[in-house]
Amino acid sequence: MASHTDSTDPNATPTPATQAGREGLDALLSQPGKALIGLDFDGTLAPIVADPEQARAHPDAVPALAALAPKVAAVAVVTGRPAGVAVRNGGFAGVPGLEHLVVLGHYGAERWEAVTGTVTAPAPHPGVAAARAELPGLLDRVGAWRGTWIEEKGGRAVAVHTRRATDPQAAFEALREPLTDLATRNGLVVEPGRMVLELRPPGMDKGVALLEYAREIGAGSVLYAGDDLGDLAAYTAVDKLRSAGTPGLLVCSGSDEVAELRERADLVVDGPAGVVRLLRGLAGRMS
């Protein structure tokens, strides 16, 4: 079971429950200049809200990142959101101390770098627009679940949310199969999350994005914090790095909705507020 702690000491860092996690934390603290800090956005840096458009980073997240970032090799926010949306909702642009922050949006298909303030990305997959055009009719055929709604993701993905439906879990389960069929017909895959089903192009996930970036910068250790099913791929990437000799620490931003993540984590913290305390504690212990 992953360690779960919530200290009032701003410089405290909890002890991971696993040996691999403890080795990862030791490596982060002993050689911070080689450390990569990887973070999901929704549910990790920002509290989950009913309307994702209203999601904003925890008020103490940016100050904590600004204190930590100059002491490590890199900080990368790895998210399924468009990179520009994550930058806006996170308040990451133009912050002293975050000059080398990177946001890997759309599971790494987009990349925003604070040093340039620009987003680079390939052309959108044509299957996304085709699937989007079919979604309203599909939702009607399935039963027009009240409160179910479609989120556009910059032409690179499209998501169906059920959190505001009359019965969120029933809507989620009823939509799984028809959305999977829709995705397959259009050359896409379905990424399930916390009361959301996202249709996106194959070949990119948070694990691929994290692994490629870790190798690009030559990371000597990696921390990754997430809260949802999409973060399992990033956990697997950290496991691959560990097996190749790069220490890593897996952090779960506590969620009772995603037991799989909690079970695999070395350390469980209390949501975005707990992630902020962890980041602040790491910064305080790094020379």
Summarize the structure.
By secondary structure, the protein is α/β, with parallel strands linked by helices. It has helices at residues 19-30, 61-68, 83-90, 126-142, 168-185, 206-217, 232-243, 259-264, 271-285, and strands spanning 3-4, 35-39, 74-78, 102-105, 110-113, 118-120, 149-152, 158-161, 189-193, 196-200, 221-226, 248-253, 267-269. The strands form two sheets. Strands 1-13-12-11-2-3-4-5-6 form a nine-stranded mixed beta sheet, with helices on both faces. It has a four-stranded antiparallel beta sheet with strand order 7-8-10-9, covered by helices on one side.
Structure commentary:
The protein is an alpha/beta fold and 287 residues long. Helix content is 38%, strand content 20%. It has nine helices and 13 strands. A nine-stranded mixed sheet has the order 1-13-12-11-2-3-4-5-6, with helices on both faces. Strands 7-8-10-9 form a four-stranded antiparallel sheet, covered by helices on one side. The two termini are 30 Å apart.
Radius of gyration of CA atoms, rounded to a whole number: 19 Å
End-to-end separation: 30 Å
Helix fraction bin: 25-40%
The mean pLDDT is: 91
Series of H and E elements: EHEHEHEEEHEEHEEHEHEHEH
Which stretches are poorly predicted, pLDDT < 50 over at least 5 residues?
none
Sheet having the most strands: 9 strands, mixed
Morphology call: globular
